[in-house]
Amino acid sequence: METATTPAMVTSLDSPNPSISSFNPNDFVVQFWGVRGSIPTPGKSTIRYGGNTSCLEMRVAGKRLIFDGGTGLRMLGDAMMAEMPIEAYMFFTHYHWDHIQGFPLFTPAFLPGNRFHIYGSIPPEGESMKKHFIERVLHPNSSVPLKGLQADLRFHELKAGDSMMLDDIKIETGQLNHPNTAMGYRITWNGRSVVYCSDTEHLPDGLDENVLNLSQDADVLIYDAMYTDEEYHSPKSPKVGWGHSTWQEAVKMAQAAGVKRVVIFHHDPTHSDDFLDQIEQEVQAVFPKAIMAREGLVVPIGV
Questions:
Q1: DSSP bridge pairs for 29
Q2: Coil, helix or strand for 224?
Q3: What's the pLDDT at 303?
Q4: What DSSP state is assigned to residue 52?
């Protein structure tokens, strides 16, 4: 059986198997719908990697899991329209704009018959996940009337460090180092694990134990590598304290945790396709099984 460590297990929209739906629904597969950080970046210099903000989908043992709701969520919603009625599980790392922008234009949420289980943390002063999500996350930022939300939305609160089961799928969480906090996720099924850590900033004096523990021996680590080390420590415009990490730190974490494959994710808005191509060459020189996240990328994890 092939594993996520072999190049054949990585495909994209340009390859003969262009969609997550091409795979057996009982497998474990990841598809990227938005890979950009901070703000959408449409334009001719971002065509190959994409300009939509954070959103990825996992199909695991017949269940559909969605992580974050950036502008990539709109495209995922359009793809879902052929599969109605839909039941899916949505997990949010945090509620900065680039992780929620797509929800007000997520068409399946406005149609009756669909069901979405929405998971995330709430701040200490929050009353409930539902109240926080509807009244504080969506209402002040939505471009459409939220009274049109006709799907069955079920809200669930998680705290960093919690774990839960969806049938035989295990979902673990961990605290990330990010302004206003964020939460990472580890999804394990049938002996295979994928870790999603965005947004997070590495520590100045050693590896972040929260991320290290969450990532231990994972098949795939999807890591916030928004900057290069040079950008992060730039004398003119340092990014220290901004809540994001570098591809060099992604490699350090992957090596220390024994990760089989690392995915460089949450690309900076100023990074063009050509710049990301250069980063890909540099990161693969030190970690050959690293790959760059791009819209449409499909990573099968296994059966």
A1: 59, 300
A2: strand
A3: 66
A4: P
Length of the chain: 303
The pLDDT tens digits of the residues spanning 128-178 come to 888 888 887 787 777 777 778 999 999 999 999 999 999 999 999 999 999
- CA distance readout (Å), 272 to 70, 159, 209, 233, 283: 19, 36, 32, 20, 16
CB distance 69 to 137 below 8 Å: no
Q: How far is CA 31 from the centre of its chain?
A: 10
Tell me the C-alpha distance between 296 and 284, whole Å. 20
Closest CA to 79 of 24, 28, 146, 34: 34
Q: Strand 152-157 to strand 115-120: parallel, antiparallel, or no bridges (unpaired)?
A: parallel
Full-model pTM: 0.92
Q: Could you give all domains of the chain from N- to C-terminal order, each with its CATH number?
A: 25-300 (3.60.15.10)
Yes or no: say if 192 and 199 are a contact pair by the CB < 8 Å rule: no
Closest CA to 35 of 231, 171, 222, 244: 222
Say what the pLDDT of residue 131 is: 87
The string of DSSP letters for 228-292 reads -HHHHT-SSS--TTSS--BHHHHHHHHHHHT-SEEEEESB-TT--HHHHHHHHHHHHHH-TT-EE
pLDDT of residue 136: 78
Q: What is the pLDDT of residues 210-258, one digit of tens each?
A: 999 999 999 999 999 999 999 999 999 999 999 899 999 999 999 999 9
